[in-house]
Amino acid sequence: MKTIDYNKHIWEGWTVVDFVSELAPMFDPNQFQTKQQVKEWCMDNQPYYKKHIKEVTEHFYNLINSK
């Protein structure tokens, strides 16, 4: 498992942890089976920034694999 840099700046003051914090209440690990599904969900639900953020995807994908 890779170490995720949660303090990495992504966009206009937003860091990885900011995006993770915004998405966490909506995330249901039971609705995903693949990393691609997690990636698409993250991009669709991230506030303001709709591009792929690999660290955010990795964070939520790790939650699926840890259950």
Report what the structure shows.
The chain has one domain (14-65). By secondary structure, it is mostly helical. It has a two-stranded antiparallel ribbon with strand order 1-2. Helix 1 (16-23) crosses helix 3 (54-65) and helix 2 crosses helix 3. It is 46% helix and 7% strand. The mean pLDDT is 94.
Percentage beta strand: 5-15%
Give the CA-CA distance, first to last residue: 15 Å
Please provide the ordered H/E string of secondary-structure elements.
EEHHH
Give the C-alpha Rg: 11 Å
Overall pLDDT: 94
Number of domains: 1
Strand order of the largest sheet: 1-2
Spatial shape: globular
Helix tally equals 3
Beta strand count? 2
Biggest pleated-sheet summary: 2 strands, antiparallel
Short characterization:
This protein is mainly alpha-helical. It has 3 helices and 2 strands. It has one domain.
Question: What does the secondary structure layout of this molecule look like, with pairings?
Answer:
Blueprint: E1 9-11, E2 14-15, H1 16-23, H2 35-45, H3 54-65
Antiparallel strand pairs: 1-2
Helix pairs in contact: 1-3, 2-3
